[in-house]
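Journal club side-thread
Mid-discussion, someone asked how the predicted structure for our own chain would compare to the paper's figures. Pasting it here so we can look after the session.
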Amino acid sequence: MSERQLEYFRGLLTDWKKSILSAAEGTLQSLQSGPLREPDPNDRASSETDWSIELRTRDRQRKLISKIDSALRRIDEGEYGYCEVTGDPIGLGRLIARPIATMTVEAQEAHERRERISRDD
């Protein structure tokens, strides 16, 4: 992968991380300032459901940040863009669609087949 492509992905990953952190900060501010108790039980249930979904989303994004950090580390170490299973280059199309990808499409499909088989046992 060329230096220009690596810089593109570094910028993409960095911007993605900043966006997630910014959204998390907004959620934190809303939690601190927003009313947590609605007078009507139905409104309260709706608000609690909304907050539960929001917090689950933030938790998934927290895990995503660690994957982004891992991808940035791989860029720094010269390992970015190569499959961790086969060592083959990961296609640019796949990396554009999923910049945190660690496997080629073929390796990912094989991994998912193995998971499905072991789950069915």
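Post-session note: The chain has a mean pLDDT of 87.
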